[in-house]
Amino acid sequence: MNNNKSNNNYSNDHLFYEILVRIFTTLHVADLAKVSMVCKSWKLASRAPELWKTLDLNKLGINVPLRPYAWFGEYSSKKMTQILKYASSLSGENISCLIFNYYVYLTDVHLISIAERTPNLKRLVLPITGNISKIGVETAMRAWGSIESITITEMFKIVNFFETVGKYCKNIVRLKFICSFEQDQAEAIVKYVPNLRTLSIQHVMVSMTGLCHVLNSLEHLEEVNLCQCLITDLLDGSFRVYYIQDIRKRVNFSCELIVCKECSCLKCTNRLEE
To answer: For residue 213, which of 176, 174, 182, 177 has the smallest C-alpha distance?
Structure first.
């Protein structure tokens, strides 16, 4: 009888745990931190690995205005530090994807704090604003040695960033730019991220010279997404716009080029000409 009661208790506890975890999947980071303090069983459920595969800081339960430097200042910085502390404590190193809110102001303290607590990170999406030093970048990338994918914004497109990535992160196979893609970035990628397989540079201005350099130089490249890009170069003091056919005339490449082919797309100057 005792064994049956013990088995029933275990079964009930496990079912209760699964129900809690299912409910907790609907909560954002701040709420998970709160429920973890209710009791031991809630704390256990709030640490479930399946809750922490992705840490999406767009879902903070806080309204962040949709503009650069929207979350800038001492109060906001402390709030971000607190959120990252709670998340890293509850996640137990299970976070493999980290998505920063696009408009959150990122500092060395934030970046280093979360990097040291997420050693198994595979994918990183960076914000557009912040104040990150070379030491901050080096410390973070050293901790993220197994990272495979990075989404890069204006703040991180400096050449020194790619040099640091190449030094510590040997497994990078995917880069996405949500800022202009210039010749300097192309040369840095070829030099420091030679095993790149996927490059996404959608909805931005792209250097024709830089793009051709990447296509000519990266032998492992499998896919380049150019949807709704403006491919240009500065010639004789004026900008020239290029089409996909112009790339094909200059480069012999085997990777797939993903381009916008819809004539209804008003932004894209790269659609195939008839």
So the answer is: 182
Report the DSSP beta bridge partners of residue 82: none
What DSSP state is assigned to residue 74?
Answer: H
Q: Is-contact 129 82, C-beta < 8 A?
A: no
Judge whether 138 and 162 are in contact, CB under 8 Å: no
Which residues, at least 6 apart from 15, have a Cβ–Cβ distance to it below 8 Å? Answer: none
Return d(Cα 267, Cα 208) in angstroms, integer. 17
**Region 97-111 average pLDDT:** 91
pLDDT digits (tens, 9 = 90+) for 164-200: 999 999 999 999 999 999 999 999 999 999 999 999 9
> What is the crossing angle of helices 134-143 and 159-168, to 10°?
30
Helix, strand, coil tally for the chain in percent (to 5): 45, 20, 40
More confident residue, 236 or 67: 236
Place of tokens 């190449």: 166
For the record, the structure tokens of 53 come out as: 């595969």
Q: Which residue has the higher pLDDT, 57 or 6?
A: 57
Contact 91, 52 (CB under 8 A): yes
The stretches of 25-73 forming alpha helices (DSSP H) are 29-35, 40-46
Structure tokens at 77: 């910085």
Any bridge partners for residue 165, and if so which? none
- Dist. CA 128–CA 67, nearest whole Å: 10
241 within 8 A of 273, measured Cβ to Cβ: no
Number of other CB atoms surrounding residue 111 within 10 Å: 22
